[in-house]
From TrEMBL:
Skewed-composition ranges (Polar residues): 1-10
Region annotation Disordered: where it falls in the sequence: 1-23
Biological process (GO), any one: lipid homeostasis
Pfam families hit by this protein: TRAM_LAG1_CLN8
Organism domain of life: Eukaryota
Protein name (database record): TLC domain containing 3A
Cellular compartment(s): Membrane
Gene that encodes it: TLCD3A
Residues covered by the TLC domain: 1-222
Matching InterPro entries: TLC-dom, TLCD
Membrane topology: Multi-pass membrane protein
Gene Ontology CC entries for this record: endoplasmic reticulum; membrane
Main localization category: membrane
Organism in which the protein naturally occurs: Varanus komodoensis
Keyword hit for Cytoplasm: no
Length: 229
């Protein structure tokens, strides 16, 4: 008698609806936590290797630039002397910490399987501001810091840096909250502590650099009236 009720059309229809809802929920979570969009087995690992290689190369390029700029000011020791390396480590502490942290974090991410594609992709958006930061340095080397291009580029640096390196973190928390039905301010209390610590370590230098960029922008845009007077 009981099995007949369980096998009734209404119960079977309810079971089908429930399974369909669960499958849709799994699909949404998969999009956020792995397997959504392009095949992550091909796209993300390849890009991760590119970023890891770039960070390692950039550390070496930074050292070469430091050595060539300071070899006349502070003579003594060869290119790879201990004194030269120590000066480089002292003067580029923050940037080196940033690069090494990325290397130490991204390398294990390569072994993560197919989990967290959405969040890994979001973190990569931080590099959207890099071309504008680099263009600003190139224009300064070309003595074009008073040009209109440099001022427009400065605005783009501010906007992309804020959106892709600072506002990005609340957006990721908000997106997670939307999927699991949590308000934004409750999300940090429902995810692993390691995630909060890692995000805190990532956003801290971004906030520091953003303050420096704002100060530089203030000097850049307030210098025009001063010269006019």
């Amino acid at each position: 008698m009981q099995s007949a009720k369980e096998n009734s059309p209404c119960n079977l229809k309810d079971t089908t609806r429930k399974e369909k809802r669960e499958e849709e929920d799994r699909g949404k979570l998969k999009m956020y936590f792995g397997g959504g969009g392009m095949d992550p087995r091909l796209s993300l690992p390849l890009y991760l290797w590119v970023v890891v290689s770039y960070m390692a190369y950039d550390i070496y390029a930074m050292y070469l630039c430091h050595w060539h700029k300071n070899t006349e000011k502070e003579p003594g020791g060869g290119m790879y002397s201990l004194a030269s390396v120590q000066r480089f480590l002292r003067r580029e502490k923050l940037m080196l910490t940033h690069h090494l942290f990325i290397l130490l974090v991204l390398t294990p991410v390569l072994l993560r399987g197919e989990r967290g594609d959405f969040f890994v992709g979001c973190i990569f958006l931080a590099e959207l501001s890099t071309p504008f930061v680099s263009l600003g340095k190139i224009l300064m080397q070309l003595q074009m810091q008073d040009s209109l291009l440099h001022k427009v580029n400065g605005i783009l640096v501010l906007v992309t840096f804020f959106l892709c390196r600072i506002a990005l973190f609340p957006f990721m928390y908000w997106s997670y909250g939307q999927q699991v039905g949590l308000r934004l301010h409750l999300v940090p209390f429902h995810i692993p502590l390691l995630c909060n610590v890692a995000n805190g370590l990532l956003i801290a230098p971004q906030l520091y650099w953003f303050v420096l960029i704002c100060r530089k922008a203030l000097r850049l845009y307030s210098s025009v009236p001063d010269r006019a007077r």
